[in-house]
Amino acid sequence: MNKKLLFLSIWLLTILLGPITVILNASRIGVPLNTLLIVNLIQRLAGLLAFTLIFWQIVLGAFMEKWEKNLGNWILKFHLTQGAIAYSLIFLHPVSLLLFIFIARGVVDPFYIFTDFCVLCQTKPELYYTFGRISFWLVSAAVLAATVRKLPWWRQNWRKFHILNYLVFFLVGTHAWFSGRDTSNFPFVIFFLPTVPMVSAIAISKIVVFLES
């Protein structure tokens, strides 16, 4: 098996863990398929897939030169395409919740979904929802920074702003673990748990390099 095929096989396996987990959890509940359940499944799928792709974006972006050396120049295009897909899923996650609330209650409240931040929250779930909201805006800022990276005034600085992805990963991970019902369940949990120390190690290595430079 060549290196490209091995990489894509591992990548695809991690991608499939999210859908498999959501399907297994939905089958255990035994609720008949309806519009609300479909929207809920879309929201959960988008969340798990987004988390998985954020992890891969960090792993690829942190060592892009080494990835290109071992796999070829196609990995950079793969990284950029994956980033666009990840952001689409990140956007779909809260939008599907917005749709779920509309179908269930007949209420459209984008301010609650996107901007209802709290620090001293009334309940712990609201604090974890806030982590999700902050993550959305931080990753939006990181995506904007990457989008305008070729502009002369930004070319030398966009990568520093793009480091927000590390903070986003930990906020999203906390949000997913305490707000969701899938991250702690098999088989996704066997992927989720190792990602935290892996990204932590990458972040620490980047901080050490920055301090030494």
Question: Can you describe this structure?
Answer:
By secondary structure, the protein is mainly alpha-helical. The chain has one domain. Helix content is 80%, strand content 0%. α2 (35-62) packs antiparallel against α4, α2 (35-62) packs antiparallel against α8 and α4 (74-105) crosses α6 (124-147). The longest helix has 32 residues, at 74-105. It starts with a helix and ends with a helix.
Spatial shape:
globular
Number of strands: 0
What is the percentage of strand-forming residues?
Answer: under 5%
Helix content: over 70%
Radius of gyration, taken over Cα atoms and rounded to an integer in Å: 18 Å
Distance between the termini: 39 Å
Count of folded domains: 1
- Secondary-structure content class: mainly alpha
| Mean pLDDT rating | 90
What is the makeup of the main sheet?
none
DSSP helical segment count: 9
Order of helices and strands: HHHHHHHHH
Contiguous uncertain segments of 5+ residues:
none
Keywords for this entry:
mainly alpha; 80% helix; globular
Blueprint (SSEs and pairs):
Blueprint: H1 3-29, H2 35-62, H3 64-71, H4 74-105, H5 110-115, H6 124-147, H7 158-162, H8 164-179, H9 189-212
Task: Give the structure's gist in a few sentences.
The chain is an all-alpha fold and about 210 residues long.
